[in-house]
Specification:
Length: 154
Amino acid sequence: MDATFINPVLKAVVNILQTMAQITPQPGKPEIKADDISRGVISGFIDLTGSDARVSVAVTFSKEAILDIGSRMMHMELKEVDDIIKDLVGEMANMVAGGAKANLQEAGYDFDLTLPSIVVGEEHQVKHSVEGVTLMLPFSIGAGQFYVEVCAPD
């Protein structure tokens, strides 16, 4: 998979969490994801589609991680994965894709964004709308783990 599409997504994720939640996530070892099972309880999906390429992005959070991030961003204690958290994950997917789009435009790519979709539940399916290799990048914050998946055609 071309790092051209991965690095802008990762840069956007780190920037959003540093700016909006005052958290600096620690990256783990990237891996090729061979299944479609989530590693968390909530995922936000969004696609970047353009004439040159199509990329599917998913951000999946453990319950502990998203409650911590949400509490920091909303300036109130959140205790459950509820509609507030669902909206927050959708907005984060939007911000990640928007940040990645801006970074990719600097490299000469032109993308449109789809509306984000959210899936909630233990071991839910993470189904990308693009056929190709899925790279999964784990991150940790003090409260837990989250995962960024980028899927692009070979």
